[in-house]
Write a structure and sequence with these properties.
Number of domains: 1
Order of helices and strands: HHHHHHEEE
Number of strands: 3
Organism: Helicocarpus griseus UAMH5409
Number of helices: 6
Largest sheet: 3 strands, mixed
Protein name: Fungal N-terminal domain-containing protein
Distance between the termini: 45 Å
CATH class: Mainly Alpha
Structural class: mainly alpha
């Protein structure tokens, strides 16, 4: 990826991060939305954390940015459209003061909220996979591997290798994400799958 392309993509990801935070804040600002859309909020938090992790990787000087721009650009555009639709529907439903009308509106939009949650869940692996591709680049050279500890990137417990067929665990050092993901790297001789565990801080009450 050309430097100018990476810069443009960073700007798009920053805008998507802002939209993600605004969507979370919007849902959480309505107590009934937070109760009714708990699963969707969780999916959104996972997506937001994956974005933040990838943003850190892409900004690293150790990353050579051999990541597919087309795939990422599509993910960013789809993510932006999803978040806009989510915020529009949340506002449309939960700004209604009358509880009866609000409930009716929620029921009318329930399938749309479920579809939006599914779209967010489907987009998170793309972002997480690109993040691990970036990590793969950084640790592919001994010198870069030695420099990572001081780069401000998430802590890595083990590093995935595209030339290895064994399973390797990657710890992203986050205390706010709750998923287990598996990403496979392919080489001419083997396919290697990398898994990482994340722990999500529990929502209050």
């Amino acid at each position: 990826m050309e430097p100018v392309t990476a810069i443009g993509l960073l700007a798009s990801i920053s805008a998507l991060l802002k939209a993600s935070k605004e969507s979370l804040d919007s849902v959480k600002s309505f107590k009934h939305a937070l109760k009714n859309l708990a699963d969707l909020v969780h999916d959104l938090e996972v997506f937001d954390e994956a974005l933040r992790g990838f943003d850190r990787v892409l900004r690293s000087r150790q990353t050579k940015h051999n990541i597919s721009e087309k795939i990422l650009r599509t993910a960013v555009n789809d993510g932006s459209a999803t978040l806009k639709e989510l915020e529009r529907r949340v506002t449309q439903v939960y700004k209604i003061d009358n509880s009866g009308f609000r409930r009716i509106k929620f029921v009318q939009n329930k399938s749309h909220f479920e579809a939006l949650g599914e779209r967010i869940r489907s987009q998170s692996p793309t972002v997480s996979g690109s993040m691990l591709d970036g990590v793969e680049e950084m640790v592919s050279e001994p010198q870069l591997s030695r420099d990572i500890s001081g780069s401000g990137l998430p802590l890595l417990s083990r590093y995935p290798s595209s030339s290895s067929s064994s399973r390797t665990a990657v710890s992203l050092g986050s205390s706010t994400l709750s998923t287990r993901s598996s990403i496979c790297f392919e080489s001419t001789s083997a396919t290697s799958c990398s898994s990482f565990d994340n722990t999500l801080s529990k929502r209050g009450g």
